[in-house]
């Protein structure tokens, strides 16, 4: 069992995709009616890395991007957030960096994600074996990394090397059915990965999927907290979250805001939650602060650029009436 006190060193290795996000401008415009777009860094792992960097963490991303202008855009964006890119490999051939179009509106929200021949799925065991894991205080990975080979094997290799170096392994389930060859393969792979992790974060649908039945999701989270993980966060959307540790269970609410879009909340939660643990906050407070980050991000355009700074988070917490339970 890894020592979670290492998180206080505030140096994180994040595994997974970075991409380009395009948002119709002005907010509220549909994709089919758009005549101009705002471009920014995206991708679940890229967003998490940006969230951590905004909180002052030292962050390195491990992924692959395509050898084209979209890949170069992502590299420049990562560097603009202060994210180390020495472990980002450029793929040649026909692979492409992920491209997402998402609307900044709630009603009839549409999002389109282009993942054909995804460059990040080409991440190899060689990519993760060249890393000096002793430089970091934790490894963070999203479930997207596990959806295809050789990225799946590379991710499990990274877990092995991180654990051997004594690093806590933090896992965001991040289940996206369209990326997987079958639901059975996804469920088996996620369960195998979760057994290797110290902190696991997911929503009720994702835990239910891992359990084989939606109504068994909380039981699956409890089983993981009892058998292997030190912290499990079971998110329930508007109903808040249940956090499970060896010391018991705690339920927390959400911060109600005027949301602009429904995307980016999970990545923002992960960034804020881990940054808060690193800063010495209790698990319960870290969950609350992560929830606040999620609410901030859904009220702004974009995902990575919407991640709050510590000052913005403090201002939100000081001026918001607080989280509510249903």
Describe the structure.
By secondary structure, the protein is of the alpha/beta class. 35% of the residues lie in helices and 21% in strands. It has helices at residues 44-54, 69-80, 125-129, 151-164, 183-194, 204-211, 217-227, 265-278, 283-298, 310-319; strands at 11-15, 19-24, 37-42, 58-66, 88-91, 99-102, 111-114, 138-142, 169-172, 199-203, 231-235, 241-245, 248-252. The strands form 2 sheets. A 9-stranded mixed β-sheet has the order 5-4-1-8-9-10-11-12-13, sandwiched between helices. A 4-stranded mixed β-sheet has the order 3-2-6-7. A hairpin with a 5-residue loop joins strand 11 (231-235) and strand 12. Helix 1 packs across helix 8 (265-278) and helix 6 crosses helix 7 (217-227). It is globular and about 50 Å long.
Low-confidence stretches: none
Helix/sheet category: alpha/beta
What portion of the residues fall into strands of 2 or more residues? 15-25%
Average pLDDT number: 96
Number of strands: 13
What is the radius of gyration computed over CA atoms, rounded to a whole number of angstroms?
Answer: 18 Å
- Following the backbone from N to C, one meets helices and strands in this order, namely EEEHEHEEEHEHEHEHHEEEHHH
Shape: globular
